[in-house]
């Protein structure tokens, strides 16, 4: 799983996110850490997905993926982790964004674009993939919790046949941005609880 580009951060943010590129969050070190933390990966799942993220999602449909969904009222969420993986037998790639804080994340209607840019500054984002999917998330805290805020790479190389790469921008005025470089345009978005997570799946190009 991986992410990329320069960030436009709100002045309220407690610190700048790391802007260095990571070759992959699926490195031996990352996977060893996930295993040590009790990751429950199914035989058909690779990457750094854990627990219910590594399980099939039979109740989630692919219809209506472009629709928006509002965040829970008074949500004040801080992004704490980003990870990805492949459901090879089930035929899709997955990116997961984990949160701490109050509420449930929402998202505006996802957009397919020719060029993604960073919020605020409008710098171009370079990302691998035939298509570019931009998801603007809602429900983020104006001032993220500095103790739990995500400080990992902003560019992630997923290297699947559905999702090629991912990029995440830190919250800006209560919204955060996820950019996916994909090789297909069939996707779905939903949330998981305990912990609070936003999940994005893209069908693999087989």
From TrEMBL:
InterPro entries: AMIN-like. Residues 14-74 are annotated as: Disordered. This is AMIN-like domain-containing protein. Residues 78-203 form the AMIN-like domain. It comes from the Bacteria. Residues 22-43 have a biased composition (Low complexity).
